[in-house]
Amino acid sequence: MGAFLLPGITIVSAPTRIEGLRRRWGTKGQAKFLLERAHLQEEQRRQGPAVQQKRNRGGVVQAQAATRVVQQQADFEDYEQEEAIYKDVVDVLEDELQFGLPVRRVDRSFVPNYDFGLSEVVVVVGQDGLVANTAKYVGNVPIVAINPDPARIDGVLLPFQVKAARTIVRRVLDGKSQQRAVTLAEASLNDSQRLLAFNDIFIGAASHVSARYVLETATASEAQSSSGIIVSTGAGSTGWMSSVFNMARGIAQFQGQDAVPRPALAWEDRRLIWSVREPFVSKRSQANLVAGWIDDASELVIESLMPEGGVIFSDGIESDFLPFTSGTIARVRVSAQRANLVVG
User: Fold this and answer.
1) Which of 151, 177, 203 delimits the end of a domain?
2) Does the chain have fewer CB atoms within 10 Å around its N or its C terminus?
3) Looking at residues 25-31, what average pLDDT do you find?
């Protein structure tokens, strides 16, 4: 049996910002040059035509432009430092996680199509979003999340640094680790397509036009026109969903009313919370159903009334979506699948 077919350890990584610039502009040098030029052009626009005529005479204008270039260079150096730290951490991880098992690196772009069935443990090294997007595809495999750069990354979902990785992964392999079973959300369509979410699911239009659909709960149903629906897990309730409650609180305060507190949800909570964004009332749309809970015994049913442009995506990854056009019915529920996040 080849090493590739043996159970092993999978390291999930993501491209750095420098790598993104290289892909866009070919080389790091070309990227740096184009960024510097963009800063200079912006400085010229800010100064206005009258001041630009004096730019060759020296003085304040050239000094300000030079300051902006120096700032841009500092920003670019931060990109380079960030990349160096990240690559070093990934290399160290690969060396530290040698337990006689195959260690495989997987880039973020391959995660949706990668078979995690032969992984004993998945080590995610990156930002919180990488953990969320990986968790949807690994099944019940334990996830060890590493913060590669604590000086730059808050890491709500990243409890470990690289120096602790070998010890934590050893605990997982020995069956001695502590794990949290994080509740996932699930959207399933009437054509059998399915999408999971670690943080949240969005149902609506791909652009800024209004989404049209019929929303059905266990007790009521109505046609709506809105900016879309957000369904959040406990892990995601402090993210996108929190902005909905921030807006509600601000409007309540503006009107001199008591603010509506955001419900507290634990990661393990077997409930989801949903909210309709900016519902519009018209002759053909209502706004009586704007928020609610989904528990293990219930689901939210949404039928698309959009001939084109309707989408369902999760965790902010708009490119990985399910089409949600006329004739499509989505059922959103608490998923039977959980993400196992190692915490100790």
Assistant:
1) 177
2) N
3) 69
Q: How confident is the model over 197-210, as pLDDT tens digits?
A: 999 999 999 998 99
Domain span at residue 81 reads: 1-177
The overall pTM is greater than 0.70: yes
Q: What is the mean pLDDT of residues 4-9?
A: 81
Which is more confidently placed, 54 or 335? 335
- DSSP, res 218: S
Instruction: Give me the DSSP letters along 142-194.
Output: -EEEE-S-TTT---TT--B-GGGHHHHHHHHHTT---EEEEEEEEEEETTS-E
Is 232 a member of any domain?
Answer: yes
Identify the residue whose tokens are 């890491």. Answer: 155
Which burial class, exposed, middle or buried, applies to 145 when counting CB atoms under 10 A from its CB (0-12, 13-18, 19+)?
buried
Q: Three-state SS across 61-101?
A: HHHHHHHHHHHHHHHHHHHHHHHHHHHHHHHHHHHHCCCCC
